[in-house]
Specification:
Blueprint (H helix, E strand, L loop, with lengths): L2 H9 L4 H17 L10 H15 L9 H5 L5 E2 L2 E2 L6 H8 L4 E3 L4 E3 L1 H11 L10 H13 L9 E3 L1
Parallel strand pairs: 3-5
Antiparallel strand pairs: 1-2, 3-4
Helix pairs in contact: 3-7, 5-7
Length: 158
């Protein structure tokens, strides 16, 4: 069982304040760990990378969007938010390496999973199941594209 699944399962019945404390602890641990994004050594990870790559470019939803619709060129913005070009090493390192992050607009810490779900919402697509193969594949794709970058968590986002 992954850490995010454990947290989700075991904090359901707890107060929001305690859930925040648990998330703060996880963020602390993530910040202290040395992280190496290169994970192409295992066959299943290679498969997930390829699936993530296909998902990144797959169009769908009512507006026929894909991840690449917003994240495949530099200078893209949604409202006041600059969007990283996730097809480049620098853009992927910036996009992947700054989550989890504190979202000023919502006053909460967001995980990469929640960030991906919000992208799906903006594309008018159904949310992927928490911790699903879809989100794992997209995460592996982004992590590998950003290999060599610096992980700077927790991030601060608008």
């Amino acid at each position: 069982m992954r850490l995010d699944e454990i947290i989700q399962e075991h904090t359901k019945a707890l107060s929001p304040d305690f859930q925040t404390q648990v998330l703060d602890f996880v963020l602390f641990l993530e910040q202290k760990q040395a992280q190496d994004a290169l994970i192409k050594n295992h066959q299943q990870e290679k498969t997930f990378y390829e699936v993530g790559k296909r998902l990144f470019y797959q169009r769908g939803g009512t507006h026929d969007f894909s991840c690449a619709s917003c994240h495949s060129s530099s200078g893209q913005r949604i409202r006041l938010q600059d969007l990283p070009d996730l097809t480049t090493q620098a853009g992927s390192a910036l996009g992947w390496g700054s989550w989890p992050a504190y979202r000023v607009s919502s006053g909460e810490f967001w995980t990469m999973q929640r960030r991906l779900n919000d992208c799906f919402r903006q594309q008018r697509m159904p949310f992927p199941i928490y911790g699903s193969d879809v989100t794992i594949a997209l995460s592996i794709f982004m992590a590998n594209k950003g290999d060599g970058g610096t992980v700077q968590t927790p991030g601060l986002k608008r």
